[in-house]
Amino acid sequence: MIDVLVIGGGYVGLSVAVAVKQAAPHLSVEVYEAAPEDAWKRDNRASAIIAAASRLLTVLGAWADIAPEAEPIRRMVVTDSRVGDPVRPVFLTFDGDVQEGQPFAHMVPNVAMVGALRSVAERLGVPVHHRMTASGFVNEGASMRVTRSDGEDVRTRLLVACDGVRSKLRDMAGIKTVRWDYGQSGIVTTVEHERPHEGTAEEHFLPAGPFATLPLKGNRSSLVWTERTEDANRLVESDDLIFEDELERRFGQKLGRLKVVGDKRAFPLGLTLARDFVAPRFALAGDAAHGIHPISGQGLNLGFKDVAALAETIVEADRLGLDIGALNVLERYQAWRRFDTFRMGVTTDVLNRLFSNDIGPIRIARDFGLGLVERMPKLKSYFIGEAAGVAAKGNPRLLNGESI
Amino acid sequence: MAETARSTIDQSEVDRFSAMAAEWWDPTGKFKPLHKFNPVRLAYLRDTIASEFGRDSRDARPLTGLRVLDIGCGGGLLSEPVARMGAEVVGADPSERNIGIASTHARESGVAVDYRAVTAEALADAGETFDVVLNMEVVEHVADVEFFLSTCAKMVRPGGLMFVATINRTMKAMALAIVGAEYVLRWLPKGTHQYEKLVRPEEIENPLSAAGMQVFARTGVFFNPLANQWNLSKDMDVNYMMVARRPKAE
To answer: Where do the FAD-binding domain residues begin and end (chain A) (predicted)?
Structure first.
């Protein structure tokens, strides 16, 4: 019998598996990943990791491998502007660290993060099976019988679904979602520029949606560029020359000439929130529980918060001799995460609606609001703390950099 | 023998719990409050036992090697976790039906518990002894509290512990644990607790001292409706727990 079976070998699934195994080595933990062995190496995206998440990765023993690839975000500039505005009035700047020597976020290539977590999984003896998933499951009371994609049946005390925003396991468990589409897509790619970014991240609220650049190692930045879906698809399919030209109109020339160096891909944006995060012997984590708008760069970090809360719930229940798959045990995880997730989902939704337009009075109001935040240092440091995930009371221990 | 011996069994109480036996393990059923209460009492007894016996609470099996009696074990809500924490557990309950439910559940879960449909008197008469005796949410359902506690105390080995958890006989307990929990919130079936059967702390301490045991820890347990969870508290007016130690032989 497996104690914890994790479906999905991305950063969330791997982190759940590693966090549980590290704190409770006597539990058997396995990961099934649908993709073939080396597929993860082809992901050339990068992600913003907030301070709380890098603390978690430090405790899990993964940060040492990630650190050489991680670029700290030292400064963040927010503007509200139109494409082609020659000068973009800066409304908000965030400087500095949440703590001495700890920037509020880092940009990390996904490959580095997943690679580091896979090494930890291997060290701890957590098997990761490839081309493998669950094609069905039945709760038989004392255990969950899971039918694998190769036709074999296994039993687990707890099944954790980390299979992404279009989670099949979530549907199989009969968990409904609240969802809507923004009609926007996010273009994600990497660009090279002539001059150094000096650790600055920029977010411009353009009428079609937010346009963000995030600093990577060297003279490179990661791009999250929101457009109406049809425009985004057209841009991604256009040749690099046209793309770079459109890019320059938004990015400006302050860092010199721009060159696209990564794949260009457009991801449709929507809000998906699972109505329940748990069922008997079943838990959702990461995007399977929530897909939110990338406007505040928090989607992945919500996933790490799930990891910390779920792993602590499992390990503490096990230390009390409780059944780790029992609904009353899992409800603690749900209570811990659902409100925060819902709040973040609504916040990003409101921000997107507030900023993705060019309506005069709304512009004035939102700029006035941003201006106020800029002038109130206390409020600003509160927002930085929130954004870094270090402000919340009752945080799971891993997010505070403590072991479970 | 049974007809002559003094008995701790209140048959109407045994019948009431037997009737609900099928629901013991349903966390949303009649025993929901006990499921909710379980983590706080398990943590308290694990941490207390660990510090008394020099164990580390964070170990996977901190109670390994200890023989534990769970008296009035019902469906095994406490016996199973204690066994998973490493202890060798005897679960005793006067109701055959409860023992049937508890044994089936333990077998399905792959947890080893020695369940027996016996009374505390019978176990004591048989000369059974334990490192830890658990009297959790039981004394308010027995016929003769004093006799019951001294019988249980006999089974505690020198250096061993006895835990007692119950509800105080105060107006606050009447308001919260009976009117609140049974009539307003409907957490518990009406009639689960009767005011006159509730037990004051001194009614536990006195017979235990008389049996040669020292009560060394006391704590209240209070439900926080906002957090929807039970926490330890200084207030012993409603739910409370006590721990007594039998001194090691000189």
So the answer is: 2-316
